[in-house]
# Entry
Amino acid sequence: MIDEKMTDQYEKALAKAQEALTIAPENKDAKLIKSLALKAKRAKEVQDLLLKAEVAFASGRYEEAIEAAGDALKIDPDNPKAGDLLGRAKVKLEEQERAKKALALKLDEAEALLESKAYTKASQVAKEVLSKDPQNSKAKAILAKARRGQRHKLTEAKLTEARSLIRAGKIQAALAKLDEVLKLNPKHPEAKRLKQDLVAKLNSKPNKQKEIERRLALAEDLIAAEQYERARIVIEKILDQDPDNKRAQDLLEMAQEGQKRKLLKQFLPAILPGANPQDIGIPGMGTPGQ
# Structure
């Protein structure tokens, strides 16, 4: 690149040569100086334009590169560097335009998927666009909408599960599901209301385990008092809540056996007058010889 000081000297030389030619139009020295100064000036302009074209090309601003290289060729039509830059920039611009059209089609696809509530696919297509054009504002907007749609869809699905659990009486499971809903959307009005209702309902009921223990103790007292039928009713309520409760199962067996003994003791005199239950070996009432 021609030194700036040298260019300035040529500019001054051109001015002096022009002044000399005004006085003596045929002055050969002045003509030579003018010619050299003009060449230097054009060379400087071409070099500046080539630098501008190279920077634009490297930055992907191919239209700007084409314009700068073209301007350089207007000054120096045979400049090989300008011609090469112009050709390469045109190829890149065509590739860029094809890529833009392909991205535009992808964005149309993503919008259509978003419209049909296919949020997962819409999100995938938007991400594909952003992988090639990270600053694409339209793709960013589509991705944000798709994520909101996915979150809303998931929220509603979990809320539906929570409603089903409530209908089935599975309060703790329903509360856990409602917590998942509120994690996705802390301000969801229905989820908040349902959770408040369930918590209030739980707080208003006796603790399940404490209630079972209370009934087990009652059943034992009733068996001890030989009130077997009442004991059986209490125990069956326990088993409705906790079917695998071993203690309740054992008590139920005791109540049933006690009820049988009580009935035999009550009706035996009518069947076998004067018979002693222990003498005939009624189960649970002693055996002969005892």
Q: What stands out?
A: Confidence is low (pLDDT under 50) at residues 286-290. The chain is about 80% helix and 0% strand. The two ends are 130 Å apart (CA to CA). The longest helix spans residues 80-115.
